[in-house]
Design a protein that fits this description.
mainly alpha, globular
């Protein structure tokens, strides 16, 4: 059946529209760069070169992308159920507390058990912190957007108090915990590839990247290959029809929000176990909010989320190099580019849908008329 002026084939909706939105964001960014007197093409060259020009840049790009994959998946799994979890940043922050408590109090465990225990601790604390607004949505009809926004502030206040007055090492001024034991770390990629005889620069890229890809695959299996995934999608599509089908929206809401909080814990695993090796103040760096943009750009699909996360990883790493090489293009300018990507991928995601649909209809063969006997 030929596409109508507002309908697109699945491949165009998933792949072409996001690419057009990103291209539009970069065009507008190029105009801004030109307005401040810099060459936009040279800026793009420096940005891409800083992110993908060598193994060191690739390592940092994938390290940032790892965090964005986890947060994007956490937001997207709620999308599938028709929910909007704005609290991924706070849930990831509290998840870091779970990883830190396991690392500091179960340090007697061997590394082969301690690191997985820290991952489980992060997932459990992230899920537990998400459970409260999830329960309020499921049982009290309190809107998840409002409660999760408020819980971000609760997480910030609680973690600030704990790091300053409870968990801080005696005699030190910095609001951070003591260092984790050696077993409470994620293996570094540079160490893993060294066993194969390869050289990799010293970057924070660690095995969390592989874990993030595994979570993306498992989420795809869950949503599109299991009964629970069907129920999640049914509630997201029409919760009234789901009730008639014997599905409990309250139950699905709780399950989905718990999984979202657990996925948010992956940010803690990547940053704390993979790089910092201690719990520090504001370690999430608002990556949970970037996950919203990643989920929107990826259309809620795990494969799209991985690609969108890599794009934002390129912007973060390449933007840092660009700001260093071109002082007039400050870090705030990179934030502007990211904001434009979010604008076109989120608020203006349908702007190019109709023109693309009209363009595609011109390349489709006309549908032949039915024979006269069939019409009769």
């Amino acid at each position: 059946m030929s596409a109508t002026p507002t309908e697109l084939p699945k491949w165009a909706d998933v792949a072409v529209i996001p690419l057009i939105n990103v291209a539009a964001a970069f065009v507008i960014s190029g105009l801004v760069v030109t307005a401040i007197g810099e060459d936009p093409f040279n800026a793009v060259k420096l940005l891409i070169g800083g992110a993908l020009g060598d193994l060191e840049g690739i390592g940092f790009t994938l390290y940032y992308a790892t965090s964005f994959i986890f947060t994007g998946l956490a937001v997207a799994i709620c999308f599938q159920a028709g929910l909007f979890n704005i609290g991924v940043d706070g849930q990831a922050y509290v998840a870091g507390l779970g990883a830190a408590l396991v690392a500091l109090h179960l340090g007697f465990l061997p590394g082969v058990l301690l690191a997985p225990a820290c991952i489980v601790g992060a997932a459990l604390f992230g899920a537990a912190f998400a459970a409260i607004p999830g329960y309020l949505q499921a049982k009290r009809d309190s809107h998840l957007v409002i409660t999760t926004i408020m819980f971000n502030y609760i997480a910030a206040a609680m973690m600030g108090y704990l790091l300053v007055d409870v968990l801080r090492k005696q005699g030190q001024m910095n609001p951070e915990t003591p260092g984790f034991p050696p077993g409470a770390t994620m293996p570094q990629i540079k160490d893993l590839v060294a066993y194969l005889g390869w050289q990799w620069p010293d970057t924070p890229l660690n095995l969390s990247f592989v874990l993030a890809l595994l979570c993306a695959y498992l989420m795809w299996l869950l949503i599109w290959r299991t009964r629970l995934g069907y129920e999640i999608r049914a509630v997201g599509a029409n919760h009234v029809a789901a009730i008639y089908g014997g599905i409990s929206p309250a139950r699905i809401t709780m399950i989905t929000v718990l999984m979202s909080g657990a996925l948010a814990g992956g940010l803690a695993v990547n940053v704390l176990l993979g790089e910092e090796h201690r719990l520090i103040l504001q370690y999430t760096a608002d990556f949970g909010f970037v996950g919203i943009a990643v989920a929107l750009m990826g259309r809620g699909h795990p494969a799209g989320i991985v690609l969108a996360a890599i794009l934002f990883g390129i912007l973060y790493q390449g933007g840092a190099e660009l700001a260093f090489d071109q002082p007039k293009i400050t870090r705030d300018m990179i934030v502007l580019i990211q904001g434009l990507v979010v604008l076109f991928a989120g608020a203006l995601e349908h702007m190019f849908r109709r023109p693309l649909a009209l363009l595609l209809t011109r390349f489709q063969p006309p549908v032949p008329d039915a024979p006269a006997a069939e019409r009769a």
